[in-house]
Write a structure and sequence with these properties.
It is built from five helices and no strands. The chain is mainly α.
Amino acid sequence: MTRRPSRRPAERATDREIVVVAAVLVAGSEKAAAHRLGLSHSTVKHHLANARSKVGVTTTAQLVWILAPRLPEPAKPPPIGQDASLNSGMEAT
């Protein structure tokens, strides 16, 4: 009998690793994500390496694919022609 892992691969990554993966995805690079999160580039690389190992993949692209259900939705821009400040809930007097 083969021993099965107790959790699905996407559930093995920590919440912090999910935040780092999402930041890399949004920022476009590890260095930009590190700047955005206030972390060093080596810390971001460390979180990504740990997550890839836990999930069982070798690339960040594979990691994003598997973790996609756990990644937060990116912020939606305001509709075209509508100023973001109009959505602040404050009425002009």
